């Protein structure tokens, strides 16, 4: 039986070959040849090699011990292999999937994460990974959970700024990008004017650009401003996020 580390080495070679864009032609050729040899060797010995999704192995990225210190949105993008300006549209599509599924899940904005329906959260994460398989590269779905928490926080801050009610599948079809929602505030398109995208890509420093104030005012009410981290070890994740300013209660 072929050792497990040989299969792991074969997989690493595969990822390097799939993601290499700046290597010399001779190096790429050598990697291709070696990859083919290792693939045949693994198959002949009945070794199962982890599936590769766009150059990233399924469930291959372990969760860091401290999300607050070790992770931000740029790190998530690097893990997914979509960092940099050249992959921005892919990232925007991934983030849109998170926003849309958050809306469809019907989370309660008046309560914190601990009081949310666990089945809703589980189904939301499952739907995100189904629509955007790149999220499957994270063990125990911690990548999708991290981005979901950031989107939840940004959406709550947007709701405070615009004095709007939470979006639903009935009032915006679940896609804020296409309806001038919490993310762009300009024309509804996913581009460089995307407020949520800019804030997330700049390590959670939220945009101060004026947002659209369409829609009817609503009564001031307390809402949770961040989903709690996936486990208690990361409970300090949002301790540095400034709480939103309280708004005066609307009068008739």
TrEMBL record:
Residues 165-174 have a biased composition (Low complexity). The keyword Signal applies. Residues 159-252 are annotated as: Disordered. Residues 1-15 form the signal peptide. Residues 180-201 have a biased composition (Acidic residues). Keywords: Signal. This is Uncharacterized protein. It comes from Favolaschia claudopus.
